[in-house]
Amino acid sequence: MMGVPDHDLEAYCIDVARRARVAAGELGGLTGAQKDAWLRRSAAALREQTPRVLAENQKDLSAARGLGLGASQVDRLELSPARMEEMARALEEIAALPDPIGQVIEARVRPSGLEVLKVRVPLGVVLFIYESRPNVTADAAAICLKSGNAVILRGGKEAAHSSAAIVQVLQDAAAETGLPGDAVQLVSTADRAAVSHFLALDQYVDLVIPRGGEGLIRRVVAEARMPVIKHYTGNCHVYVDRDADLEMAERLVVNAKCQRLGVCNTAESLLVHADIAAVFLPRIGRVLGRQGIEIRGDAEVCRTVAGAQAATEEDYRTEYLGPIISVKVVASLEEAIAHINHYGSHHTDAIVTDRLAAARAFTRGVDSSAVMVNASTRLNDGGQLGMGAEIGISTDKFHARGPCGMMELTSYKYVVYGAGHLRE
Amino acid sequence: MMGVPDHDLEAYCIDVARRARVAAGELGGLTGAQKDAWLRRSAAALREQTPRVLAENQKDLSAARGLGLGASQVDRLELSPARMEEMARALEEIAALPDPIGQVIEARVRPSGLEVLKVRVPLGVVLFIYESRPNVTADAAAICLKSGNAVILRGGKEAAHSSAAIVQVLQDAAAETGLPGDAVQLVSTADRAAVSHFLALDQYVDLVIPRGGEGLIRRVVAEARMPVIKHYTGNCHVYVDRDADLEMAERLVVNAKCQRLGVCNTAESLLVHADIAAVFLPRIGRVLGRQGIEIRGDAEVCRTVAGAQAATEEDYRTEYLGPIISVKVVASLEEAIAHINHYGSHHTDAIVTDRLAAARAFTRGVDSSAVMVNASTRLNDGGQLGMGAEIGISTDKFHARGPCGMMELTSYKYVVYGAGHLRE
Fold it and tell me: What is the distance between the alpha carbons of residues B409 and B415, in angstroms, rounded to a whole number?
């Protein structure tokens, strides 16, 4: 489809979106057993088709050199038998979860005898725009279909062959288990204009989930006529309180910053209470230094931490996604909360403290999707929090906040049973 | 503020929105007892200030003649001691409900001992745009504040004096009970451009709820940069199944159509199964005729119902908001479901049937915010369904569907307690 005239591209997008809408109508009426049969068949087929998928993955890896991808990008792109097995197991884990659709969320009987049920239903059609990790293809399709939604997958072009091979497996499994073939569709063009066309089709597409750089997400939000689940950045903080266990604080800061660079729940900023700064700053400075992390701090940080650079105002707003951390000394818990709410991105922020009153004030005062007490920011993740697989993390307050899994891809309807009940 | 230069109007709107944002920050931290004290003081003050509010209401009623309002509009505008008492009681009822904020929605302990709480929080600032019923002013403010949100009220200009008097009572009560004065603000200009300015201020306003005609709501959706809770129309159906109790069906159709014309959950269309059409159509035709309802129907309806007019395709899409109903004979339950999903507005639709399988198929197949079995469409209302006072009804699937009360004006955050928990 590359390089086709724009009206053909638009017609292609409308066709994909319409097919998804029709498939969504069918999916909403399936039983959990049917959806789980598809998930288990898909898992088995991914194992069977591993050689074919890996061969397609090789095409992407060869092309990656030409695209000038970095080592970490190539690593995310690369599939292996072990990664295929992980992908298959992830589908089986989703199959083992209860079916959210049809679940009675609330029920009450009115004094008149009227029975009121609030019943979970799918949203409809999800457009998922994501980066170059091929395993995300299978995960996202599984989460969407199990929650009764059709999905349109728009993957990174770096993973085009791998994603196409995986989607073929999922579609074949759909045919074998009686699911509509259009329940999972992969956009087959790398043309950026296709995204714009889909974002205008709010009569067919109910929700967009973009994952990737801030530029992409801002473009999607500006253009989309349908709701978007997203976070722009993850400028996450760890605040070490006056009454913190400094041993624990050290472990938490190192884990939050260093366990994995370049992901949204990694800590990008460290706040330290003034009363313990003289003790804790040199200590954490040495440990982070050994991990190869550059420190950018205020005057006191620069005085006490060897090698620290002066932070600018901009540093406190920055999600580095790399081996840098901003550090600031704060006079009080209140200053820490105000700093986080002002400079942060409402994603994930942690306090290290032994004081109950400090934990309560921090969890109430910090306006973020997840607020951690004596726990690493890296734990804000659907799997880690026990919600099952996630398709993204939201920093919005409307509809879904924090990790978004199957439940966040659903709506509800009221089903009301009477025996001739009238409005008086 | 009428007729002021547009940059002054914009500055005024920004000032109102900023004040609301600051007030929202304070409201989120209040206890339920503080909010309930404000509600009870407001109720008492409405009783005490009844003469003053009624005097202001008289100014609106005098002006109403000049504006050429119809009798039903004047009726909605008019306050009386009894209506003031109802308004005060409604605030006391909201005070008696549990505080939604801080409620733990879900909680789990992970195998690692990590404690995960999902805690209810306010959305922030709500812009509420509504028609000329002054009692809505007090209701909306109460629902918003009890759920921890600041509210900007934009009422109809017909009720300007009445609303201003009521808001003054609520603001005085706020001052007396320690709530921020800017928690409830009334937009003091009738300039339509003010709405456009507010709809651009997504940095201050978190949600808009427009209530009124479809034109107003479409304009708000087109301009708003923040989420909107709304329904465009209520084209609600009653489907009388083959195995319906026709006695009950008659009562339900009459209640759904005639109990109150001109509201969103009134039935605008009647579908009748072909097998009972010959019996039921003449019967319901007579009853509706006696109620002064005009019938527009298909060929069979015109043949069997005296005085029925031929319906156009457009009739089946129309929310009459008046003494007209469209009527159609359908060959099957499936045709009824397909008709409702195609022509309806996903608001409220009812089946009358004795067959369990029909009830199950209808409640699953009809894609509406509320699906009623042997109950009147008029019962889709927050109070009737036992959810407490409502601020509107949503036909969207994202965030809130059906009647929206306090719970629908909230979000949540994850609060996670560890003891030095790391990501492995």
Answer: 20
Residues of chain A with pLDDT under 70: 1-4
Q: Quick check: A202 and A226 in contact, CB under 8 A?
A: yes
Residues of chain A found within 8 Å of residue B423, distances taken between Cβ atoms: 255, 259-260, 376, 378-379, 381, 384
Q: Which H or E run contains A51?
A: helix A50-67
Walk me through the domains of chain B, giving residue ranges and CATH numbers: 6-230+400-416 (3.40.605.10), 236-384 (3.40.309.10)
Could you give the CA distance from residue A400 to residue A229 in angstroms, rounded to a whole number? 7
Distance CA B31, CA B222 (A): 37
How many whole angstroms separate alpha carbon A259 and alpha carbon A109?
50
d(CA A341, CA A371): 12
Residue B424: Cβ within 10 Å count:
9
ipTM score for this prediction: 0.95
Q: A392 vs A147, A325, B121, B181, CA distance in Å? A: 15, 24, 21, 39
Phi, psi of B104 (to 5 degrees): -85, 110
Read off φ and ψ for residue A170, nearest 5 degrees: -65, -40
Q: How far apart are CA A329 and CA A172, in angstroms?
A: 57
Residues from chain A contacting residue B378 (CB–CB below 8 Å): 422-423
- Tell me B183's DSSP state: G
Whether A376 sits inside 8 A of B421 (CB atoms) is yes
Write the Ramachandran bin of A260: left for phi over 0, alpha for psi from -120 to 50, otherwise beta: beta
B158-196 pLDDT, tens digit each:
999 999 999 999 999 999 999 999 999 999 888 989 999
Supply the Cα-derived Rg of chain A in whole angstroms: 24
- Asked if A375 and B418 come within 8 Å (Cβ–Cβ), the reply is yes
Ranges under pLDDT 50 in chain B: 1-2
* Sheet (strand B150-154) strand order: B184-186, B150-154, B125-129, B207-210
Interchain pair B110, A245: CB under 8 A: no
What angle separates helix B32-48 from helix B81-96, to the nearest 10 degrees? 170
Strands (E), A293-397: 294-297, 309-310, 324-330, 348-352, 370-375, 392-394
Facing A423 at nearest CB: one of B245, B384, B398: B384
Find the helix or strand (DSSP H, E) in which B415 lies.
strand B410-421
Q: Could you tell me which of B339, B320, B336 has the C-alpha nearest to residue B235?
A: B320
How far apart, in whole angstroms, are the C-alpha atoms of residue A72 and residue A223? 30
- Taking each helix axis from N to C terminus, what angle separates A32-48 and A50-67, rounded to the nearest 10 degrees? 70
Please say whether the dihedral angle defined by the alpha carbons of residues B289, B295, B299 and B302, taken in this order, is positive or negative. Answer: positive
Three-state DSSP state, A109? strand
Pair of tokens at residue A91? 């589908």
* Residue from the list B370, B374, B416 with its beta carbon closest to the beta carbon of A373: B416
pTM here is: 0.94
